[in-house]
TrEMBL record:
CDD domains, A to Z: G1PDH-like
Top-level taxon in the UniProt lineage: Bacteria
Name the record gives this protein: Glycerol-1-phosphate dehydrogenase [NAD(P)+]
GO process annotations (BP): phospholipid biosynthetic process
PANTHER family: GLYCEROL DEHYDROGENASE (PTHR43616), GLYCEROL DEHYDROGENASE 1 (PTHR43616:SF5)
Record-linked Gene3D superfamilies: 3.40.50.1970, Dehydroquinate synthase-like - alpha domain (1.20.1090.10)
Cofactor(s) required for function per UniProt: Zn(2+)
Length: 354
């Protein structure tokens, strides 16, 4: 860190076959000082049941670490875990799971100042390496909270190969959405006389390019999994360097947040929601969406709103609410007047997949 920078980087990013079965060796290789330190493992009850052997093996490798099944992905749960960590002199937190688990464990480590090791069971979004945790606050209301990024990220390619396909598609959607997010970031900077961090921009663009231009089209292929893993991590690091989510979050994310906040009954993952939002966002920005449409078709990523129970009226209302869902976030939505005829045309185009 020099006098002009204020960001952290993970010490370790390991993307290996059966990495969970030799995670202690990986940690010993990169951060030997924490071997032997008191450790707890955070996961969810159903994941502990599914991956019992692997999680028990990891527990054994880290001094019979206590396995804690978190009750919710909430601020209160993260604080409760942090309290346990501080009171019991725990030095290392290992998060094993998807985005809910990783965000909760990451924030608990941030509060308690424990070393945090991130071990995803799926690649559904770029939260695994981001300096943010999205947690429930009151009821189902959620808030994005700033925190420290992981000390180590360990991805087991076999785990990802066997993860539900929809979760990998979600990670692909979150990565490809950087195309419209970067446009909005530059637009915002031009309107506010603020600076786009060139390095953060380049990392985010590399994240997008590495997946968009990937020659390997099989999501179960280990080469593709390594590329997607690194792309999601690059997105997280771009946010850490920029000091905000702007390198990865624009109008397409506002659309996703509108769904999450106003239409909680719509069953769609975060990554698929931003993929859905990226097509209209691209059109609003005056860019052609054909490249994204072709890409999504290649990976069989469904961008038909009807598939998720989203009607024409809901689609139009989601975009209307997207304008106000994050106050102060300038995007292309501040420059255009949403036209119902245009929105209906976009909806029809997405239904037809063209």
């Amino acid at each position: 860190m020099n006098q002009h920078t204020r960001f952290n980087l993970p010490i370790c990013l390991a993307v290996e076959e059966d990495a969970f079965f030799h995670s202690d060796e990986i940690v010993k290789r990169y951060i030997p000082d924490i071997i032997g330190q008191k450790t707890i493992i955070i996961s969810e009850e159903f994941l502990i049941g599914i991956y019992k052997d692997k999680i028990m093996d990891i527990s054994s490798d880290f001094g019979n670490a206590e396995i804690v099944a978190m009750k919710s992905a909430s601020f209160d749960e993260a604080v409760s875990i942090a309290k346990k960590v501080c009171v019991e002199d725990v030095k290392v937190i290992i998060g094993i799971g998807g985005g809910r688990v990783l965000d909760t464990a990451k924030y608990a480590a941030h509060i308690s100042k424990a070393v945090y090791i991130c071990m995803p069971t799926s690649l559904s979004n770029d939260s695994l390496a981001s300096p943010f945790s999205v947690l429930e606050t009151y009821g189902k209301a959620r808030k994005t909270l700033t925190c420290k990024i992981p000390t180590a990220i360990i991805v087991d390619t076999n785990m990802i190969i066997n993860a539900p396909e929809g979760q990998t598609l979600s990670g692909i959607g979150d990565t490809i959405a950087k195309h419209t997010a970067l446009f909005d970031w530059k637009l915002s900077a031009s309107k506010t006389n603020s600076r786009v961090d060139d390095f953060a921009y380049a990392l985010s663009r590399m994240s997008y390019d590495s997946v968009y231009h990937c020659d390997e089209k099989d999501m179960k292929n280990r080469v593709f999994i390594r590329i997607l893993s690194r792309a999601l991590v690059m997105g997280g690091l771009a946010m850490e360097i920029a000091g905000s989510s702007r390198p990865c979050s624009g109008s397409e994310h506002l659309f996703a947040h509108a769904i999450e906040e106003y239409y909680p009954d719509v069953k769609i993952s975060h990554g698929l929601a931003v993929a859905l939002g990226s097509i209209p966002a691209c059109i609003f920005q005056g860019q052609t969406p054909q490249g994204l449409l072709d890409f999504f078709r290649t990976y069989k990523l469904d961008i038909n709103p009807k598939s998720y129970g989203i009607t024409e009226d809901m689609f139009a209302d989601m975009w209307d609410k997207a304008r106000t869902v994050r106050t102060g976030r300038i995007t292309i939505l501040d420059d255009i007047k949403l036209d119902r005829v245009q929105l209906d045309e976009i909806y029809s185009r997405m239904v037809e997949g063209k």
